[in-house]
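Late entry, evening session. Most of the bench is empty. Finally got around to the prediction I had been postponing all week. Sequence below, unchanged from the version circulated by S.P.
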Amino acid sequence: MDQRPRLPESKFSYRLQDWDQSLVVESPYAEVNSTLTRILGLSQSVRSLERSNRQLAAAVPAFWAAQPVPSAAAEREVVVGSCDGKGVLIRGAAVTPAMAEPPLKCGPKPGRNRMALVGTL
């Protein structure tokens, strides 16, 4: 009889588990709890959200194992690109005199910073 309605093994419904997992991807557990408390009037503990997350994560390997393996002809190469930039302060030569007065203009000084860029494929 218990199998007929296909109820979850935990005390939280499938819909609530779905909402929980959708929210914990982007927010801390305590924030998810306060959001759902405001919307539904239902309070969950952080521990129950963590436990639910662990239980649902345990089903991931079985899900991927059940997926069909693509044929070799359908496989394609994957190209991944990445880049990063960092501002680098350019220091003058040691003979450059120190500034006597503070500059009148605020903000970045032209010619003092350069951008170091790194890219990879």
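Two things to note before I forget:
Residues 29-40 form the longest helix (12 residues).
The chain has a mean pLDDT of 83.
Will write this up properly tomorrow.
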